[in-house]
Amino acid sequence: MVRLIKETLLATALAVCAPHIVLAAPQPVSEAPQPQSAIYIPDESDQIVQVQAQASNAALQRWIAGFRSRALSNGISARTFDRAFRNVSYNSGVIERDRNQSEFTQQIWDYLDNAASDTRVRNGQRALRQNRRVLEQIEARYGVEAEVVAAVWGLESAYGNYRGDTPIIEALATLAYDGRRGRFFEQQLIAALQILESGDTTPANMIGSWAGAMGHTQFIPTSYLAYAQDFTGDGRRDIWSDNPADALASTAAYLSRFGWTLGQPWGVEVRLPSGFDYSQSGERVKRSVSHWMNAGVRDMNGQTIPNHGEASILLPAGAQGAAFMIFNNFHVIERYNAADAYVIGVGHLSDLLRGGDRIQASWPRGYAPLSFRQKRELQRRLTRAGFDTEGTDGIIGPNTIAAIRAYQASIGVTPDGFASVDVLNRLRGR
Fold it and tell me: pLDDT of 254-288, one tens digit each?
């Protein structure tokens, strides 16, 4: 889902099964408009840019001509196709954002400061009051708490205030033609045309993010086709409307489809005992709640935690930051966006919307995160040292975390799996 390109990040993989595309890490949509830039003074380079844009647009039009037969073979009528591509041109801004997004990185505490800000909580509580009846109906039908649906809405589009303004057909056509992940974006483009063919919306109304995510909760077209709901009963699955009902129901249907359990927390902030075995942390290590209780793990009030099923201990900032006991609902939110920061952001915001406590532990603030290039260097050095990360994509996922943890254990430091400058410098021999 805007996600929004908000949409933290700790870089994550392209989630082709998610409602919206995760390209780097989720950045929560800002609750306030950004300031305008100063007056722009053109120079000679503008002429070069203009010529390049004209050439790119001509090439795109040739690509569209070739794509037309593929679209029609997928059930798109000539009338729908021609209406959709009227006035479509090469969008250089989309390509620029696609090229540069992987360089963006943000620490989880900075992400959560925005995702669960006082302003976002206040706005969310107001949105809950204003939409209480429909959210209660959605909760009853799909078994997903109103606050959870509202939290996704809040992170994706600031409760509908920032739904994106990029024409989806133009954005997807540009990305599909450009070639990087072209097959994926062509698949999304055909799905977008199928949406238009169904009559759910019009080309002019089909707007969203630069990467193709649409509506209040930022569905990509294939996820829309699979999970979007006509909750209002007007015959259209309208996730773009000012009325958010269809979009919110679609989000609940998506989470329900992937196994949401009503009443189960996404996670609980916990205190770890002295001497905790950090090699047992991470999403891949699942134990019963009783196992963790016997190991001395407690909630932040020192109390035992109810049995909500198998659980893992997650340390998103290593041993120096907050610790969470996470349950299956955590992994359901991951299907929406795979970044830990996003999942914790949705979960924590939903807790705050129902009156829960803020995260109590301190974060290891005060230093810059690893850049995308440094993360790739870290992966290369780990693999060369015999701790295979199974790829050097700059994404700190479970494989890289396990490799870091094994390396840390081999040199006698706390094996928390946190990708830090300290770990990189040790690998460099500094």
Answer: 999 999 999 999 999 999 999 999 999 999 999 99
User: Looking up tokens 């209780």, which residue turns up?
Assistant: 293
- Whether 250 contacts 227, CB under 8 Å: yes
* Cβ burial 245-284 (10 Å sphere, 16+ → b, else e): bbbbbbbbbbbbebebeeebbbbbbbebeeebebbebbbe
pTM of the complete model: 0.88
Count Cβ atoms below 10 Å from residue 353 Cβ, excluding itself: 22
Nearest to 393, CA basis, from 407, 382, 379: 379
Instruction: Cite the beta strand spans of 205-322 per DSSP E.
Output: 207-208, 267-271, 298-299, 312-314
Residue pLDDT, tens place only, 133-190: 999 999 999 999 999 999 999 999 999 999 999 999 999 999 999 878 899 999 999 9
Phi, psi (rounded to 5 degrees) for 166: -95, 130
Give the CA distances from residue 345 to residues 107, 168, 229, 244, in Å, rounded to whole numbers and listed in that order. 12, 27, 25, 21
What tokens were used for 123? 């706005």
- The two three-digit tokens of residue 1, written as one number: 């889902």
Active site amino acids: 156
Q: From the centroid of its chain, how far is CA 22?
A: 5
| Residues 6 or more apart whose Cβ sits within 8 Å of residue 75 | 194, 197
Residue count of the chain: 430
The C-alpha atoms of residue 364 and residue 381 are separated, in whole angstroms, by 24
Q: How far apart are CA 21 and CA 4, in angstroms?
A: 9
Joined tokens for residue 166:
């990029």
Band of the pLDDT at 14, cuts 50, 70, 90? Answer: very low
Rounded alpha-carbon distances, angstroms, from residue 332 to 141, 148, 186, 329: 18, 12, 27, 5
Strand order across the 312-314 sheet: 298-299, 267-271, 323-326, 312-314
